[in-house]
Amino acid sequence: MDLSNIEVKKDLQIVFMGTPDFAVPILKSLIENYNVRAIVTQPDRKGNRGQIQVSAVKQVGLDNTILVLQPNDIKTEYEEISNLNPDLIITCAYGQILPKALLDLPRLGCINVHASLLPKLRGGAPIQKAIMDGHTKTGITIMYMDTKMDEGDIISQLPVDIEENDTYDTLHDKLSKVAVKLLLDTLPSIINKTNSRIKQDNSLSSYAFTIKKEDEKINFNVTAKQVYNKIRALNSHPGAYCIYKGKRLKVFESYITDNYPTGFNGEVTAIYNDGFGVKVSNGEVVFKTVQLEGCKVMDAKSFINGNKDIVGKVLQ
Fold first, then answer.
1. What is the pTM of this model?
2. Which of 160, 202, 205, 163 is nearest to 178 (CA)?
3. Is the pLDDT of residue 4 over 60?
4. Who contacts 36 (Cβ-Cβ below 8 Å, separation ≥6)?
5. What is the mean pLDDT of the chain?
6. Residues contacting residue 15 through CB under 8 Å, at least 6 positions apart
7. Which of the chain's ends, N or C, has fewer CB atoms near its CB within 10 Å?
């Protein structure tokens, strides 16, 4: 039995920085295999009903009695992290860019687990953007961090296929599992300083900035595939939406038909067994699962029962 490897893992001081559900399996795998000295996550937020919500990553820290730090601004509030003198900082969807003083602190550097094949899709919404833009492949990149967003040297990558029926939820889960494997496979070479270090080709870069409200609105003047991709990219949160009778109508599930109806783009064309059709620039998309503002999520059939005059209405 190689006890030296166990001692390396035990002695290594890791600070993990992350916030959402995506980072949870990665953090748990580190806790199982290494010494996570502290967890850094975003400050607690107030939910829609005024209740304080802790991040998914913080909850893991609390459950495992690990020190949790929550600076409001990591650029100026990093003294507690510095005092820990970590050997390695690992980030995953943390949500803030680290200052150079923190990047230079660990002897093994700061690495980031990013949900795309860099230099493609730099930024905070790579999963949504990959689906929205119709990509058929994405993946996980482990990289060294620098002062610019997702521009550091690449250490390792692992591709993941995007299936035609993948949604944000399904792709999120696939990528999170791959991230666990890739990180655990890559860490020994980082610790031993035998890992690869590949400069990114900035001429091949693209960006996936955080989704804004205007990005969530469905445009019926584009193709059926583009509408379908937006809906599955924003499933299940925050949800793509359109306007129906002055209210926001979110759409969480849809499919494309072979029909080419006439009429206005956005016009409800027909009622089907599993939803209602909507005309777009080059065909028809059927909405299957929806949520009208102020109501619960429901299947389209239930929605139609309360909106029997929907055919012929034009969604905005």
1. 0.92
2. 160
3. no
4. 14, 15, 16, 27, 30, 64, 66
5. 93
6. 36, 37, 38, 39, 40, 81, 84, 86, 88, 89, 90, 106
7. N
